[in-house]
Amino acid sequence: MKRRDTLGTRLRYGFDKSMAAGPIALIGWLAVVSLLIIVAAAAFLAVTRIAPEGGEPLNFFEAFWESLMRTLDSGTMGGDTGWAFRIVMLVVTLSGIFVVSALIGVLSAGVDSKLDELRKGRSRVLEADHTIILNWSPSIFDVISELVIANASRRRPRIVVMANMDKVAMEDEITAKVGKLGNTRIICRSGDPTDLYDLAIVNPQTSRSVIVLSPDGDDPDSQVIKTVLALVNDPSRRTDPYNIAAEIRDGKNAEVARVVGGAEVQLVLADQLISRIVVHSSRQSGLSGVYSELLDFDGCEIYTTAQPELTGKTFGEAVMAYEHCTLIGLCDHKGHVNLNPSSELVIDKDMRAIIIAEDDAAIRFGSTAIQIDAAAIRGPQPVEAKPERTLILGWNRRGPIITYELSRYVAPGSILTIAADTPGLEQEVAGLPVAGDNLSVSCRITDTSSSTALSSLDVPSFDHVLVLGYSETMAAQPADTRTLVTLLHLRKIADDAGLHISIVSEMIDVRNRELAAVTKADDFVVSNRLVSLMLAQASENPYLAAIFDDLLDEQGSEIYMRPVADYVAIDQPLTFWTIAESARLRGEIAIGYRRIRAGDADQRALGGVTVNPLRSEALAYLPEDRIIVLARD
């Protein structure tokens, strides 16, 4: 039997549907019901000509107004006269009481629901030009700290954080661990970053940039890739490309992430980044300070900017055209990065300059009179590569990458000894991949926190010592504690032998960096902080990941720290113009120096490193001072 589609049925269906739609729809239906009651009463009074006792009959509009007043205010009928009129108005008033009561209930429920959404962090973000951070990890606090510095000159900057955590818990942790937020406001939301509906809460359509952190737990790379996939393939996404910086732990997953994200994503390969910096720092003391300076918003940064004044000049001429900043490379119109290109390369109008500067406002073409002491410039001298002995104490998932990277740089006959007590170490070391035959690898099962065990390794006989944290088998604090114990034992061994031992240590938590300073190690590579700095910088500069891929790749131009005396005579003070010219003549770019003087302030713990110095300032150098250059070998 066919159901009759009456007006009552349609109203009842619409009301049931609005019950599921929310308070706004319910308020709309209550308004419709009220209007129907008022219109019906007004029409009845107009047709029947019922009026207050002794009064004139009401027309439709007057009756409509009388009914409306009694619907909104039940006290209005107190002055009515005539029983017929009173009965009609009583019906209207009772209907009004029902509607108003229902309206109050709906409004109360709606307000409670919205407050509950706000408490749970499920309300939609209405901000624009904001930075979004997806997922939660120990790196998030350093990322936020760096973005706060970057936002100092912006108007009303906002950072939106979304993760599978309670909103209040996230806010409390950020308040406790980040400190001063300046003019930046932090907005936290709870949700699943891989879910399209939840992603809509943080409003990525109007965002400035998106940072996808690698979350804790099993298979974090899959979570990151799925989040990027949800962002770029959202059916309702914006037409303009996103600027996404995503953290990937395992380099094997990088290709899939690039396919998913395309040109919209910059990948920060966390383990490869840390491993390469550890290897470079172990072979050149103080190098970690250079990378920290380049990645830190608080000092000099890498900018990619159009410089039309360079059009038609050779790169060699352009390198010497800036006094307050340092040109290190070019980026073509396709986005391809070329660091330290040939000096004869003519700069095209579509190329962007890659410049190290303290601030984008400091990038100014031209300089004062260039002061070069040509007589002080020295030519290059051949350096014979010698075999190296390297000792790794401790082990984690970055160990295999460090071993492989080390094998790409050392001379034939070099030796690597790995000493740790992690389960299955011997089998893993036996299968470690190495590049070529220059490096032989051996393994010792040793308690690296034992002074007796360390003494048996003959530590002073090694050229370099790398101390890795047991981050795979221990939490961050216990792992760093064991690293500190190892470093203290190494300091005693060095003091007893009366020798300087080149030591580079990996720290997990930046808060332990200051405690480790008493061990007098040459360098501390703080893994979580470096990844955080890289992600924060990549969110501001879409070319940064490619720039650092080139900087840390054996095939590209790399950063070296070499004796100043190899470039210039140091018998008198020299300007950095002279050093820069000496490097330019060798096809290199001088980007800074390392001078350690007793009493000099080192507030940022860079170990005497100065990047992008003022070129016109004359300084005296000692034989142990180093020049920081960007070179191809």
Automatic annotation (TrEMBL):
<feature type="transmembrane region" description="Helical">
    <location>
        <begin position="83"/>
        <end position="111"/>
    </location>
</feature>
<dbReference type="InterPro" id="IPR010420">
    <property type="entry name" value="CASTOR/POLLUX/SYM8_dom"/>
</dbReference>
<keyword id="KW-1133">Transmembrane helix</keyword>
<dbReference type="Pfam" id="PF06241">
    <property type="entry name" value="Castor_Poll_mid"/>
</dbReference>
<keyword id="KW-0472">Membrane</keyword>
<keyword id="KW-0813">Transport</keyword>
<keyword id="KW-0812">Transmembrane</keyword>
<dbReference type="GO" id="GO:0006811">
    <property type="term" value="P:monoatomic ion transport"/>
</dbReference>
<protein>
    <recommendedName>
        <fullName>CASTOR/POLLUX/SYM8 ion channel conserved domain-containing protein</fullName>
    </recommendedName>
</protein>
<dbReference type="GO" id="GO:0012505">
    <property type="term" value="C:endomembrane system"/>
</dbReference>
<keyword id="KW-0406">Ion transport</keyword>
<feature type="transmembrane region" description="Helical">
    <location>
        <begin position="21"/>
        <end position="47"/>
    </location>
</feature>
<dbReference type="InterPro" id="IPR044849">
    <property type="entry name" value="CASTOR/POLLUX/SYM8-like"/>
</dbReference>
<feature type="domain" description="CASTOR/POLLUX/SYM8 ion channel conserved">
    <location>
        <begin position="272"/>
        <end position="367"/>
    </location>
</feature>
